[in-house]
Request: fold
Amino acid sequence: MLHTLIIGAGPFGLTLAAHLKQTAIDHLVVGKPMEFWEKNMR
Ligand SMILES: Cc1cc2nc3c(=O)[nH]c(=O)nc-3n(C[C@H](O)[C@H](O)[C@H](O)COP(=O)(O)OP(=O)(O)OC[C@H]3O[C@@H](n4cnc5c(N)ncnc54)[C@H](O)[C@@H]3O)c2cc1C
Reply:
């Protein structure tokens, strides 16, 4: 069963996903990874 839904795949969302993976908590990340950075950083 899905336990946690993470909305947004920026640095904080991906960090949370990595942490949950270590603790074996089922989770789903929605969004394109690092989309804000890809579009806005030089
Ligand atoms: C112009 C600018 C320059 C910056 N330069 C730097 C830098 O050089 N170095 C540095 O360390 N920090 C920099 N920052 C700060 C850095 O961008 C933020 O601290 C960091 O991106 C925050 O991460 P976050 O995961 O909270 O949010 P974000 O990076 O914003 O990630 C959130 C993601 O969630 C997505 N999202 C939102 N709503 C939904 C939804 N409903 N469904 C799916 N996806 C969704 C967004 O599209 C986004 O991709 C800069 C910020 C700005 C504005």
